[in-house]
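Feature request, filed as a ticket because there's no other form

It would be nice if the structure record came with a short human-readable summary line next to the tokens. Right now we just get the raw output. Example of a typical job, pasted below so the devs can see what we mean:
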Amino acid sequence: MIDQGTAPGKALSAEVRVGNELGLHARPAAKLAQEAQRFDCDIFLVSGDQEVDAKSILDILTLAAQQGGRMQIRASGDDASEALEALTGLFKSRFGEG
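Raw output as currently delivered:
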């Protein structure tokens, strides 16, 4: 679900679940970072008390997200809505891993 907020310029967010059997390991983390880099907006992943840059594979890997784990994607900027749609789609498709 994407929360678009009400104030102009407010960050958009979506909650996602890691469906991959091996969690958010190197291959899906690379796909996520590569997709995030296509957008000009700022994009962050939030898991527990950690917030990391979604455009950095190393930052994503520090989350050590396991299968079934939930996190938020937060985006702010002109193309934030498109970025959220694209990134939530990756999670829904399990990053093409079945």
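Something like this underneath would help us a lot:
Strands lie at 2-3, 12-17, 42-47, 50-53, 70-76.
Helices lie at 26-36, 57-61, 80-92.
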